[in-house]
Amino acid sequence: MKLVPREAEKLALHSAGFLAQKRLARGLRLNYTEAIALIASQILEFVRDGDKTVTDLMDLGKQMLGRRQVLPAVPYLLDTVQVEGTFMDGTKLITVHDPICSDDGNLELALHGSYLPVPSLEKFSGSDVEDYPGEVHFCSGRIILNLHRRALTLKVVNKADRPIQIGSHYHFIEANPYLVFDRHRAYGMRLNIPAGTAVRFEPGDAKSVTLVSIGGHKVIRGGNGIADGAVDSSQLNEVMQKITENGFGHEDYPGASEGLIGDGTFDCSVDHEKYSSMYGPTTGDKIRLGDTDLFAEIEKDFAVYGDECIFGGGKVLRDGMGQSAGYPASASLDTVITNAVVIDYTGIYKADIGIKDGLIIAIGKAGNPDVMDGVHSNMIVGVNTEVIAAQGMIVTAGGIDCHVHFICPQLVNEAIASGITTLVGGGTGPAHGTCATTCTPAPSQMKLMLQSTDEFPINVGFTGKGNTAKPEGLSEIIMAGAMGLKLHEDWGSTPAAIDNCLSVAEAFDIQVNIHTDTLNEAGCVEHTIAAFKDRSIHTYHSEGAGGGHAPDIIKVCGVKNVLPSSTNPTRPFTSNTVDEHLDMLMVCHHLDKNIPEDVAFAESRIRAETIAAEDILHDMGAISIISSDSQAMGRIGEVIIRTWQTANKMKVQRGRLPGPCDSDPAEDNDNFRIRRYIAKYTINPAIVSGFSDFVGSVEVCTSWPLSDFLPLNASYSVNNIR
After folding, report:
1. What is the 3-state secondary structure (H, E, C) of 71-107?
2. N6-carboxylysine-modified residues are where (predicted)?
3. Mean pLDDT across the stretch 692-720?
4. pLDDT mean over 533-561
5. Which residues are annotated as a binding site for substrate?
6. Are the beta carbons of 625 and 563 closer than 8 angstroms?
7. What average pLDDT does the segment 187-216 reach?
8. Mean pLDDT over residues 286-299, rounded?
9. CB 203 within 8 Å of CB 158
C-alpha cells in the first residue's frame, strides 16, 4: 500500500477509534484511551471528507463527547487532543483544547461514517465526582518569593516601536537599549516576579516594576556584556560609562523606593495552588496517587522560592541567568531533572536531580551559583547541561522484577512500558523448563542469553539452576555469568539440594532464590527452614499460591533470615483472584488434568485464606517484595499497578498506616504506607539481588536512567477491587 510509518500508525488509531465507537453505540462510557481514539479518528475522517478547515475541526472536536459519555475521571485527565491530517494544502496539526466540555456530546458527530446506531442520551447516566486522579490538596497560606532580598521600585519606559519582554532572571541593567530607566539603581538587580515569567513592555509603555538583588555569588554574565563580572560598587562608574557609550537608555529616578522582601511593601507572593501549577506541589501539599485513596505529602522542597529552574523560551535556564557561564564541562552537570516530586523509600520530597557520567551525583537545588542562592556545589547548570523538566511529574526509581521467566523477548517491551527497568530471573526461551522455572542451566545457554539481551535498554540478571546435592556444575554456571542460583521444586527442592546450593552461593557471595516443595515429599516447611541453617535466602511464592509447601509455606515470612516475596497474580485478593488460577497453574507447570494427583497438586496451592493473608502480610511489611512470575502465572506488565492496587485496598480495608515515628496520630497523609509499598518493587528486590548500590532508589551514585516519569494524575486503575 506504500504507507509511510505515520500512516500505518493511523490505521491502528482508526481501529481503536472504531472500537470506541462500537462501545459508545451500545451505551458504554468511554475511558481515557477510547475517548482520545474516537475524537482523533473522527477528526481524520472529517479531514478526508475535504470540506472542513483546521478551525472547523478544532471546534467539532469539542462537540463529540460530553461528561456523561466518558468515565468520571476522563474530563480531568484529557485536556488536549492533537492529531495530524492531510488537507488539500498539505499536512496540518489539529489541536482540540478541553475536548470534554459539556454534559452531553453530539453522538451523531461521534458516530459519523460508522453506520452504527446512535444511542439515546438516556443510556448514559453520568454523575459528578469530587475526587479525580492526581488531585492535589493544597496548603493554606502564601509563598513569598525572593524572601529577605533587597528590593526597589523603578519606572521603565519603552521608547521602541516594538514590544520588549524581559524575563524574571535577566540582568535588568543589561536590558534592551530602548528601555529607559535608572540603570544605576538596577545594577545587580532583576525582576521580582515568579521564576520563568516575564514583564512585557508594549511600544510607548511606562510601567513601574519591582526589582530584587540577584543571589548567589552576585556575578553578572551574558546579556549585552555591559556589567560583566562580580557586582561591585567600585565598578559602577565604569559600567555607567559603557551604558552611555553604547547608547543604552538611562534616566535617573530619584523617587525610587527601596526596602527588603518580606516587609510587605515589595513582596511578590503566590498561593500554593498557583505555585503548584507553575513548579509542582511544594512542602505540605498532598497528592492523590492516581485514582487510589492514597495521599502523598511533600515532606520537603529543596527549591529556593523565586529561583526555581524553569526551561523554555524566556524562562530561567538561559545563559547568565539560571545557566552559568564560565564553568567547564567537568564542573557542570550533564543532565538536570528539575522540580521533580520524588517518591522513594527514602522519602517523599521535591528537588532537582543532578546527573553526571550516568549516575545521580546530587539531589537538591540546581542552577547558577553566580545568581542563585542555595545551589548545591555539584549541581551547576552550564553550557554542557541537558534539561529534563519534571514539574508536575512524579519521579521514582525504575521498577525491578526479580521473578522473571525469560520465555520470549516481547516481555522486555511490556516491562519497560509499565515502568520496570531491571529484570532478574532465568530461562532459555520457550522451553518447558523455562516456562515453569527461572533457571538458565548450562554455561553455553548463559552466554547466549547474555548476548541476546544486549540490544535491550534494560538491566538483566540471570540465575542458574541450583538443584543439586553436590557442588559440581554450580561453579561453572556462576563463572559463566549467573548472578544467583535458583532452587525450584520442579527440579527437586530437597534439603540436600538446598544445603549444597547455599554453601556454593556463600563461597561466591551470590544470592539464592527458592521455590519450595508443594508436595512435602522430602520434608515439610520446618525441614526446609532447617536446611537454610540461618543463611539468608529469598523465598519465592511465600504465600503459597504460586507454589511451595502446602498449606503452610507462609510461615517463612516470620523467619529472620528469609527475604520473602510474592507474585502479582494474587495481588490483591479480589473477587476473581481464585477463579483464574487453577487452569493457569496446570498450563504453566506442565500438569495433566487427567491425572488426579496433578489436579490435587494444583488445588493444594490455591487457597483463598492464605491469599487474603498475603494482603495483610504485605501491609505489615512481613512480605518484602512483589514480583511478576512472568508468563508462568504472572504478568510482567502489572507488577507496579498491582502493588498500588494492594496498597489502596489495604488503605480502604485497614485505614491509615501510621509510621514508626509519627508524632501526630491525626496526620492524614499516607507517606509511610507509600514508602513501604514502593520499596517492594525498587530497593527491596535490589537489596535481595545484590545491586542496591546501583539501582533501586533515587539516591546519590545510583544509575539515573532507571527513573519513571509519571504525571501527577497517572492512573493506577484500582477499579473492581473487592
Report:
1. CCCHHHHCCEEEEEEEECCEEEEEEEECCCCCCCCCH
2. 486
3. 65
4. 92
5. 488
6. yes
7. 98
8. 95
9. yes
Backbone angles phi, psi at 213, to 5 degrees: -70, 145
Percent with pLDDT over 70 in the chain: 95
Burial call 159-170: b when 16+ CB within 10 Å, e when fewer:
ebeeebebbbbb
pLDDT exceeds 50 at position 719: no
Which amino acid does the sequence have at 90? G
DSSP string, 246-265: TT--B---TT-EEEETTSSS
Residue 400: helix, strand or coil by DSSP? Answer: strand
Q: Band the pLDDT of 508: cuts 50, 70, 90.
A: very high
| pLDDT over threshold 90, residue 631 | no
CB burial string 310-339: b at 16+ within 10 A, e below: bbeebbbbbebbbbbbebeeeebbbbbbbb
Higher pLDDT, 355 or 586: 355
Give the type of residue at 447.
Answer: K
Return the DSSP state at 284: T
**Burial environment of residue 358 by CB neighbours within 10 A (0 to 12, 13 to 18, 19 or more):** exposed
Residue 599 corresponds to which cell in the numbers above?
489436579
Q: What is the mean pLDDT of residues 379-400?
A: 96
CB atoms under 10 Å from CB of 306, counted, come to 24
Contact 156, 181 (CB under 8 A): yes
What is the model's pLDDT at position 715? Answer: 44
Region of 347 please: left (phi>0), alpha (psi -120 to 50) or beta: left
Which cell numbers hold the place of 537?
535466602
Say what the pLDDT of residue 722 is: 25
Cell triple for 47: 479531514
For residue 433, give the C-alpha cell.
523448563
Whole-number Å distance between alpha carbons of 366 and 131: 34
Mean predicted lDDT score pLDDT of the chain:
93
Q: Which residues participate in catalysis according to the annotation?
A: 589
**Contact indicator for 479, 442 with CB cutoff of 8 Å:** no
Q: Please tell me the distance from the alpha carbon of residue 426 to that of residue 477, in angstroms, as a whole number.
A: 12
Query: Which band of pLDDT confidence, cut at 50, 70 and 90, is reported for residue 591?
Result: confident
Distances in Å between the Cα of 711 and the Cα atoms of 175, 287, 337 are 37, 11, 14
Helices (H), 234-360: 236-245, 272-279
Q: What cell was used for 237?
A: 562608574
The single-letter DSSP state of residue 30 is B
C-alpha 199/C-alpha 212 separation (Å) is 14
Which amino acid is residue 224, in one-letter code? N
Q: What's the Cα-to-Cα distance from 546 to each of 549, 551, 605, rounded to whole Å?
A: 10, 12, 7
Could you give the CA distance from residue 109 to residue 45 in angstroms, rounded to a whole number?
11
Of 384, 265, 278, nearest in space to 336 by CA: 384
Q: Residue 589 has what pLDDT?
A: 64
Quick one: 592 exposed, middle or buried, by C-beta within 10 A (0-12, 13-18, 19+)?
A: exposed
Could you write out the three-class secondary structure of 568-616?
HHHCCCCCCCCCCHHHHHHHHCCCCCCCHHHHHHHHHHCCHHHHHHHHH
> From the annotation, which residues make up the binding site for Ni(2+)?
403, 405, 486, 515, 541, 629
Does 278 score more than 70 pLDDT? yes
What SS3 class is residue 670?
Answer: coil
DSSP per-residue string spanning 473-495? THHHHHHTT-SEEEEEGGG---H
pLDDT tens across 300-326, in order? 999 999 999 999 999 999 999 999 999
Q: What gap in Å lies between CA 565 and CA 211, rounded to an integer? A: 58
